[in-house]
Amino acid sequence: MKLDNQNILLGVSGGIACYKSPEIVRGIRESGGQVSVVMTRSATEFVKPLVFQALSERPVATSLFSLEEENQIGHIKIAERADAMLVAPATANIIAKMAHGIADDYLSTSFLACTAPVFVAPAMNHHMWDNPAVQHNLDILKSRNLNIIQPGSGYLACGSYGTGRMAEPADIVSVLEDFFSKTGDQTGSGSPLKNIGVLITGGPTGERIFAVRFLSNDSSGKMGYALAECCQQLGADVTLISGPTSLPEPAHIETVHVMSARQMMEAVMERSEQTQIIIKAAAVSDFRIEAPNPQKTKKSDTLVLDLVKNPDILKELGKKKGKDQFLVGFAAESQDVKHYASQKLKDKNLDLIVANNILQKDAGFDVDTNRVLLIDSKGSTELPLLSKEDVAQKIMDYILAQDKCQSIIKG
Ligand code: PMT
User: Fold this and answer.
1) Backbone conformation region of residue 281, classed left if phi is above 0, alpha if psi is from -120 to 50, else beta
2) Is the CB of 24 under 6 A from ligand 1?
């Protein structure tokens, strides 16, 4: 069965499409999954919680302030237990709350506490669907990697014709099945990295020259953020240590913002011992200003900067790497890529290095695509030009296929 052992948290918000949601529960159960249902107050006006309770064979949560419900389930516990969350139907109201972090009922609170992948099946009148505010909120959710299940077109409950009809229950269940068949093992969680700590660094670092000026580089953070999101989809407990970027913080990923290489070093070292997989995609400044001026330096014809070497975070990690740790570095090279990257693999005691040629226009810094070479002690594998999301997926597929990674997962 395709959803074997998956725990799906179903959030039901109040729209007429609620009448289809019990069919979703039935579909998930038939596919081997378990369902916990959380309803908004308006949803209970359309369908009684008892219907969901009977089909899911689990208590249904409707009120944060019900002693009995909180005692039996608990909005944090129910969110933590989920392998995926599905909101169906998702009204314009709950979509807005999810986009803006409003937590004023069981459903919206559970959503914020949920770190599993989230699927959203909108349902509403077609003018509401077309409203720029709704589309903007959906864009926010998409940018945070939530999966939007497109509504269909046809006659709507309000009598008009257009887009806004919730996808059919069977199609929604198929989306979940496809997701778990792509991401996961069928025996357990559908999340091969469940309970595995992954630490990822992304973006540049910035080294203060004087107040309001710093030295940095062209890293946008896209590669590191794509890896963090990919690992989260694989079920890992992800921490992203990010240098200064303009990317939105990924939803449900613990993100620690740092500025300088030394701050990045501190944030990484603090967490490295509790982490099984470390991937260093950040472009760390090799040098820093020894004594930055806390004031704004006055303009002059020349400015001489005294630079001192920054610590090599990856090298330090390599020195203290445990048997149960998988350490991955990146190499930004402009010539003889394989040779220099292989040297870094050895010097820094890495399990894998991902090398990119930063002189290619469509690869490396500040573009949406990358073309990388995966190098380890067994040899090298060249990947074609791919989106950074696909590169992240391929890197993780490679790591997951390694015996060392499998033995780390098995404990
Ligand atoms: O952020 P994007 O715009 O998406 O761009 C992605 C990227 C080009 C930044 C990324 O793909 C990449 O190549 N990252 C590594 C960049 C880099 O600094 O490479 P390096 O060859 O100088 O360093 C080798 C490795 O040592 C890297 O894993 C780096 O994180 C690490 N390092 C380097 C210096 C230092 N002081 N400490 C480190 O930990």
Assistant:
1) alpha
2) no
* 158 is an active site residue: yes
For residue 370, the CA-to-ligand 1 centroid distance in Å is 14
**Chain mean position to CA 240:** 10
Residue 267 shares a structural domain with residue 402: yes
State how far the alpha carbon of 150 is from the alpha carbons of 114, 121, 251, 358, in Å. 22, 7, 20, 38
Tell me how far the alpha carbon of residue 283 lies from the centroid of ligand 1, in angstroms: 4
Q: Which pLDDT tens digit goes with each residue over 289-325?
A: 999 999 999 989 999 999 999 999 999 999 999 999 9
Pick the atom of ligand 1 nearest to 316's CA: 39
Residues 153 and 22 in one domain: yes
3-class DSSP state of 93: helix
Q: What pLDDT does residue 38 have?
A: 96
Q: Which of 121, 148, 183 is the last residue of a domain?
A: 183
Alpha carbon of residue 211 to chain centroid: 34
Active-site choice (158, 230, 231, 405)? 158
Nearest-angstrom CA–CA distance, 318 and 392: 22
Query: If you search the block for the tokens 């002189």, which residue do you land on?
Result: 359
Asked if residues 288 and 308 have their Cβ atoms less than 8 Å apart, the reply is yes
Q: Which atom number of ligand 1 is nearest to the Cα of residue 202?
A: 1
Q: Is the CB of 314 under 6 A from ligand 1?
A: yes
**Residue environment code for 152-167, b if the CB has 16+ CB neighbours within 10 A, otherwise e:** eeeebeeeeebbbbbb
CA distance 388 to 293: 38
Q: pTM above 0.70?
A: no
Q: Which residue has the tokens 């378990």?
A: 34
Choose the weakest-confidence range: 5-19, 65-79, 134-148: 65-79
Q: Could you say which DSSP state residue 368 is in?
A: S
User: Both 283 and 247 in a single domain?
Assistant: yes
Q: How far apart are CA 138 and CA 129, in angstroms?
A: 10
Amino acid at residue number 281 = A
Candidates 205, 207, 212; CA nearest to 299 is: 212
Distance 325 CA to ligand 1 centre (A): 20
Name the residue range of residue 323's domain: 197-410
Return the closest-CA partner of residue 133 out of 98, 96, 164: 96
